[in-house]
Amino acid sequence: MSPRLQKANNKQPPGLPGNFERPDGPDTASRLFWLGVGFAVLGVVLIVTGASADAGLKFAVAGGTLALAVRFFSRHGFAALLLPFGLIASLAEMLKNRLDSPAPVEVEPASLSGQPLGEGLPPLDLFGPPGPPAAYGAAEDAGRAVVAALAEFNVPAEVTGVRTGPVVSRYGLKLGSGVSVRKLYTLEGDLALALGVPSVRVVEEGGRLWLEVPNRKRGTVVLRDVLEKYRDKLPKGELPLVIGVDVFGRPLSLPLEGMPHVLVAGATGAGKSVCVHSVLSGLIALFPPEELRFIFIDPKQVEMAAYEDLPHLAAPIAGTPEEAVAVLSWAVDEMERRYGELKRLRVRSVTSIPKKERPFPFLVVVVDELADLLLSGDAGKEAETLLVRLAQKARAAGIHLILATQRPDARVLSGLIRSNVPGRIALRCAKSGDSEIILDAPGAERLLGKGDALILVPGQGDLVRAQVAWVPGDVPAKVSAWWRENRPGAGYLFAPQEEGKAAPGPSPGKSRKEEEDEALLREALDVALKHGRVSAGLLQRELGIGGGKASKLLAEMEKRGWIGPARGNRAREVLVEKAPE
């Protein structure tokens, strides 16, 4: 090729001075272009990662300017530089404004903590402050310690998983070949000593083998926190008993209407009273008086005193055995009345009726110390008869029993009561025999106390381990006062004065029934004066009346000062020499 033709082929585009070539060539312009691109990319990385926004902006602007300038200059001449510089300036201004502007503030939705669980229900702030953050758990080397302890007793095993709750941790076990699970049960005491804990428990559940070991640091469970967890989805059942949390720390509630009666028992200091108050507080957090009423029987006359203002009460709190018999007699009559209403409506139970159409509320009878009631002579025997009758028949009428005792022995928990009260909550017991009476199985004697419980749910084969929620002592009074202020119209369904107990003596204008009651009372006094002593059994024999009526007569005579107070199983003393005028 001639020099003239070669020069013509290498001719530069118009407007490109000197020896510059296109930026895609391997010369200086191309290197400058890619250098600019590199600086721009570095700047973007610095901005996005937040390492240095100012430096990133400078690198991005400088690199972008260089790259665009080289490309436009090499292709379109100097006049075309105005366009890229304008774009770069605009981009730089936008980036600067974006960096200088404050970050948008994310507005979190208002917290519902402490608010009621439903319309017309008390705020959860009344149930005490939230508990401390969960700080319990198994030690990091606890799994190895379990395997080592088992190996000491020639039980080869491996830990297949760990699940931790506030009180105990569960270790899933896979035993070596030829090792019997039965052997593991016999080693529970030895394993506890080897691990340095009060007790361990072997559990077969869900087709797996578990070893429950107490945590080194025990967690705190408060009722307020448990109720808060039910905010999005209320507990299952028509009448849920909020117990606390299960062994894995999940909220635990039991449907009372399905149990349908519950026995709460354990040794002194094990948490029986806390369990009762937790259950009652959970119920009054979920139900207004229109849907739920209570009968409280408190032989000690101190445990239930905080609920005196509660509008859910169907009757005044019964303190004496005679008052207990009177209110239980009314409950039996109410049960029969409800069955008549169910028959009229042609339904089998109250739960078959839609909630808004139910003609009567649920009624829960709570006896705080069953032993003090049942071992109080003739009145105690009559009370046991009435309780058994309610336990046998009252479920469909929406009447349920919660019986609590610190004396889980055969004298208190007779076969009739145990067979008709299938739901059981066992706190720590003094001996395995007490556990057998409560749960029909040992195990409660190895509980840790302070609300650690085993629960027997009817129809469920395995015992449920739970930690009962703690309730501050002032909660019942505070919540009762709130309900009284917001439901001032709720009154008693049964009051003793309606049964002829209020008047101190005859008065003009009495109804025929009141006159008959007064005449019977005078006959009872004549019996007392004749024998020089008086008891419910004596009145039943002499007057041909039932135990409930006899107990009411004794209570009225004591109120008028005619006879002395109850003295255990002994007959009462007569304080007057003749019948008052």
TrEMBL record:
<feature type="transmembrane region" description="Helical">
    <location>
        <begin position="32"/>
        <end position="53"/>
    </location>
</feature>
<feature type="region of interest" description="Disordered">
    <location>
        <begin position="1"/>
        <end position="23"/>
    </location>
</feature>
<dbReference type="InterPro" id="IPR003593">
    <property type="entry name" value="AAA+_ATPase"/>
</dbReference>
<dbReference type="InterPro" id="IPR018541">
    <property type="entry name" value="Ftsk_gamma"/>
</dbReference>
<dbReference type="Pfam" id="PF01580">
    <property type="entry name" value="FtsK_SpoIIIE"/>
</dbReference>
<dbReference type="GO" id="GO:0003677">
    <property type="term" value="F:DNA binding"/>
</dbReference>
<keyword id="KW-0472">Membrane</keyword>
<dbReference type="InterPro" id="IPR036388">
    <property type="entry name" value="WH-like_DNA-bd_sf"/>
</dbReference>
<feature type="binding site">
    <location>
        <begin position="266"/>
        <end position="273"/>
    </location>
    <ligand>
        <name>ATP</name>
    </ligand>
</feature>
<dbReference type="InterPro" id="IPR036390">
    <property type="entry name" value="WH_DNA-bd_sf"/>
</dbReference>
<dbReference type="InterPro" id="IPR027417">
    <property type="entry name" value="P-loop_NTPase"/>
</dbReference>
<protein>
    <submittedName>
        <fullName>FtsK/SpoIIIE family protein</fullName>
    </submittedName>
</protein>
<keyword id="KW-0812">Transmembrane</keyword>
<keyword id="KW-0067">ATP-binding</keyword>
<dbReference type="GO" id="GO:0005524">
    <property type="term" value="F:ATP binding"/>
</dbReference>
<dbReference type="GO" id="GO:0016020">
    <property type="term" value="C:membrane"/>
</dbReference>
<dbReference type="InterPro" id="IPR002543">
    <property type="entry name" value="FtsK_dom"/>
</dbReference>
<dbReference type="Pfam" id="PF09397">
    <property type="entry name" value="FtsK_gamma"/>
</dbReference>
<keyword id="KW-0238">DNA-binding</keyword>
<dbReference type="InterPro" id="IPR041027">
    <property type="entry name" value="FtsK_alpha"/>
</dbReference>
<keyword id="KW-1133">Transmembrane helix</keyword>
<keyword id="KW-0547">Nucleotide-binding</keyword>
<feature type="region of interest" description="Disordered">
    <location>
        <begin position="496"/>
        <end position="517"/>
    </location>
</feature>
<feature type="domain" description="FtsK">
    <location>
        <begin position="249"/>
        <end position="436"/>
    </location>
</feature>
<dbReference type="InterPro" id="IPR050206">
    <property type="entry name" value="FtsK/SpoIIIE/SftA"/>
</dbReference>
<dbReference type="Pfam" id="PF17854">
    <property type="entry name" value="FtsK_alpha"/>
</dbReference>
<comment type="similarity">
    <text>Belongs to the FtsK/SpoIIIE/SftA family.</text>
</comment>
